[in-house]
Amino acid sequence: AQTVTQSQPEMSVQEAETVTLSCTYDTSESDYYLFWYKQPPSRQMILVIRQEAYKQQNATENRFSVNFQKAAKSFSLKISDSQLGDAAMYFCAYRSVFTARRAQKLVFGQGTRLTINP
Amino acid sequence: DAGVTQSPTHLIKTRGQQVTLRCSPKSGHDTVSWYQQALGQGPQFIFQYYEEEERQRGNFPDRFSGHQFPNYSSELNVNALLLGDSALYLCASSTRTGYTQYFGPGTRLTVL
């Protein structure tokens, strides 16, 4: 079974600075998807960024980018120019590539609470 | 384009009661997954519905059951509620082969 570990329960950063959230995962599969979701106090889980494991190029979405290290099974999220609205719980998640037999569930880590200091 | 919607927003029940939570998927999506998120934890997969059938199930007892309707909307039913069932219940929708799940705002269930 796949597992996802986020070793930083809490992180804080000054507004406009850069912060990196860590995520490691364990799997025996060679192809899969990885995600970062953001959950603000409003509770809505919002997709931040996604990465296909077969792509060597790291995904980027505006101020958000990932450092995907497949061999190390590491998937960190970098937030540049942090803004007050970035404050939230951030969850790393894993999903198998679709097949009729594979579980299509998302496997989540425990989350990292990010605080932005003005 | 409407996103994933869930109802109700909050719910308070007592032990032993039964509860039904509802979810409407994002337009164009045909697959619905349910997750339970205990306070301070990451979401845990309950089950997934496609073509009105339960396709996959996580490690949850039979007290948790569901249904999917022809319009792809879904219900989560929990019988014989326990205090430990208190959690945020999240619904996520996707296409059958699409790899991204989009989440609704959740239903906060409190069991007293």
How would you explain this protein's 3D organization?
The complex is a heterodimer of chains A (118) and B (112). Chain A has no helices and twelve strands. The model of chain A has no long low-confidence stretch (mean pLDDT 93). Helix content of chain A is 0%, strand content 51%. Chain B is mostly beta strands. Chain B has no helices and eleven strands. In chain B, strands 2, 4, 5, 6, 9, 10 and 11 form a seven-stranded mixed β-sheet that branches. A four-stranded antiparallel β-sheet of chain B has the order 1-3-8-7, with no helix packed on it. The interface between A and B is medium-sized, with 26 and 28 residues.
Brief sketch in words of this structure:
The complex is a heterodimer of chains A (118) and B (112). Chain A is built from no helices and twelve strands. Chain A is mostly beta strands and 118 residues long.
Give me some keywords for this one.
heterodimer; A: 118 residues; mainly beta; six-stranded mixed beta sheet; four-stranded antiparallel beta sheet; 51% strand; globular; B: 112 residues; seven-stranded mixed beta sheet; 0% helix
Query: Roughly what percent helix of chain A?
Result: under 10%
What is the rounded distance between the termini of chain B? 37 Å
Q: Enumerate the spans of chain B where pLDDT stays under 50 for 5 or more consecutive residues.
A: none
Count of individual helical segments of chain A = 0
Q: What would the principal axes of the Cα set say about the shape of chain A?
A: globular
Order of helices and strands of chain A, N to C?
EEEEEEEEEEEE
**Counted beta strands of chain A:** 12
Strand-pairing-aware structural class of chain B: mainly beta
Based on secondary structure, the structural category of chain A is: mainly beta
Query: Rg of chain A, please?
Result: 14 Å
User: Tally of extended strands of chain B?
Assistant: 11
Please mark out the parts of chain A with pLDDT under 50 across 5 or more consecutive residues, or reply none: none
User: What are the secondary-structure elements of chain B, in order, as H or E?
Assistant: EEEEEEEEEEE
